[in-house]
């Protein structure tokens, strides 16, 4: 697994909504905005499923995803690639549900996507754009 740098973690904390890219087993892409995103540790990001349809279907048949980290307040631009595990019960799922309900009690928090970070790429324009940094 890949451990995030302090700069990347700071960028993650600054963003409110993240584009998450997935693809079906046959390669049909999907990008959807994610707001229930939690940095659990240097190698793990949790995403709460409140309204997923294509995203959830994609990661169940092709457990890979890319999270785009860029926006106001972020000092950098990163693409985080990860292996995804989906949980619909258990201790981690219950913890994620409580985290979501603490902020927005009316959200369903149906399932938990656990992203184990495998690679990170630079996204800022310039000579380093597209370069793997972790």
UniProtKB/TrEMBL annotation:
Q: Which InterPro entries match?
A: Pyridox_Oxase_N, Split_barrel_FMN-bd
- Provide the Pyridoxamine 5'-phosphate oxidase N-terminal domain boundaries: 4-122
**What is the top-level taxon of the source organism?**
Archaea
The record, for SUPFAM superfamilies, names: FMN-binding split barrel (SSF50475)
- Read off the Gene3D superfamilies from this record: Electron Transport, Fmn-binding Protein, Chain A
Q: What is this protein called?
A: Pyridoxamine 5'-phosphate oxidase-related, FMN-binding protein
């Amino acid at each position: 697994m890949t451990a995030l740098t302090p700069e990347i973690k700071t960028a993650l904390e600054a963003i409110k909504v993240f584009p998450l890219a997935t693809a079906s087993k046959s390669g049909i892409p999907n990008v959807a905005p994610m707001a229930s995103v939690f940095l659990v540790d240097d190698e793990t990001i949790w995403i709460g499923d409140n309204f997923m349809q294509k995203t959830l279907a994609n990661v169940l048949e092709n457990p890979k995803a890319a999270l785009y980290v860029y926006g106001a307040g972020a000092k950098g631009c990163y693409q985080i690639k990860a292996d995804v595990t989906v949980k619909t019960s258990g201790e981690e799922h219950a913890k994620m549900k409580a985290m979501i309900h603490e902020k927005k009690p009316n959200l369903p928090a149906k399932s938990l996507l656990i992203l184990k970070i495998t690679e990170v790429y630079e996204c800022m324009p310039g000579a380093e754009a597209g370069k793997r940094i972790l």
